[in-house]
Amino acid sequence: MEHVLGAEMAANVWKVEVTVGQLVDADDVLLILESMKMEIPLWSPVRGRVTSVAVAPGDVVAEGQTLVVVEEGAA
Amino acid sequence: MTLDRDAAPHPDLPDVVQELKERTATALAGGGERQHAKIAEQGKLFVRARLDLLLDSGSFVENGLLARTMDDGLAADALVTGTGTVDGRVVAVIANDPTVKAGAWGRETIRKIIRQQEEAVVLQCPLLYLVDSAGARLDEQFDLFIDRHHAGRIFWNQARMSGALPQICVLFGPSPAGAAYLPAFCDAVIMVDGNASAFLGSPRMVEMATGEKATAEEMGGARMHCEVSGLGDQLAKDDVEALAMARRYLEFLPDHAEGEVPRRAGVEPAPGKSLDELIPQAQNRAFDVLKVLNRLVDEGSLFQHRAGFARELVTAFARLDGRTVGLVANQPMRKGGTLSSDSSEKGAQFVQLCDAYGIPLVFLSDTPGFMVGSQVERDGIIRRGAKYLSAIAEASVPRICVVLRKSYGAGYMAMSGATFGPDATIALPQAKLAIMGPEAAVNAIYLNKINAIEDPDERTAYVAALRAEYMINLDVFRAASATYLDAVILGDDLRAELVLRLERYARKDRERLPRRHAVIRG
Predict the structure, then answer these.
(1) Which of B283, B333, B375 lies nearest to residue A63, judging by beta carbons?
(2) Which of the following CATH numbers is that of domain B17-252: 3.40.47.10, 1.20.1440.230, 3.30.390.10, 3.90.226.10?
(3) Contact present, A73 and A47 (Cβ < 8 Å)
(4) What is the ipTM of this complex?
């Protein structure tokens, strides 16, 4: 199952911690947004493989905008 | 002449004893086998099994079992009502039977609901709605829609009881159209994942009215309501878990607004890291406030209200040394703890809930303030935030503000800071209080000067110096020195401090404002 992970609020992309194809565990930090002077980590909801990273550091994202896609359980 | 008491009844008289037995058995059975099989397939329990799980054994006193006994196939008119006890405490219950007419309301269904609401008021006990109903029976609408005592009266009663008696709704199945307002008036709404749904128009009706195609689950499913719309407070995996959650609410709520708030023997918090280890000093670093709460409250007592909705603000019941409290805490793991329109309304409801039922409130602040931007302004963040502030201003229960780390801008009022009249404002040593954080403030005051410096290194050094200077204003010891704060304490001492203060404030003479009510900007 595919998990499309969006921005929970308007923010800047500060750090991207994963690359396409990378295996991740549930609760791994995928990227960190910066908004309201706070670090806003995005965690993987599942164990799986990153199939898409739609943003790069410095990008401005709107609430709900797709950031990362994780394919659950993909070996 | 003597009476022969052993003589057989007159052959022309019906055997009423036998008749009662038969009518009772028919009413107790609910719908037919096919309907029972259908609910079993959906993973649902029969309404009477739900009551058995909820109530103490042998405590149920039923009203209106023989409703519509003169009609075929309308056992109890698809509703079970009465009173029982939960752990010895009296509650009233109103429970749909989806095996009869899919639980749809008929003319006696509404009379039974209203009668049971009235009895809850007379007995001054909590009222539980176990909802699983297809709505109103259109073929009986003449007898249930127009009169003063028809279906709308149910919601009028609910609105009038709100804040006087706890009303808890468990949605086991649908609650469509008018009945969708039933959960909306309740203090707590539990929804069973996959089976519960609430919407004003059914998928069929919506498609006819607007052409939109959506499933019942998409339009008004339990998960949607618990995570997006905010109509649902608890997402239960099945009927059994839903009923356990209903009992959990009763663990914290009194019988009525003036009743004793339940209290238990105190227990120590679960072992774990200290607050100083859990809360990073760096103001911009996220941490999980639930871990902090678990280190503060009695082990096993934390019960989140609306855990899946507006997660940047945690609202939860818990016990502190046995005493029931309501906790309102920013969650830096979500949106950096920034307040939003949704979290404002979530906070407003919880503060009102605690204030109505005499439950003391503890606010734990770590927020950069309310979200900014054109999107949130269009969404009405100011007027919706004001609802929350209004609820705090009206709350007269014991109320403590704890600044865990930061409290900026209107976020300070929203976390019941000193200006909003709490019984005490206390802070941990890393706390920062200001109109805005140093980055934003330096930018606001000195932008022209900063831009005028051409050398980037010089500019960076200048900004850093300005921020450091600004931080002096935010210093918690300065605030304590000016007696703006009542206490600055170590994280390790916070639980003991809260226990003592809550014990002290329990004697508080609660203020009643000399007016009918505030005017809320909706």
Answers:
(1) B375
(2) 3.90.226.10
(3) yes
(4) 0.87
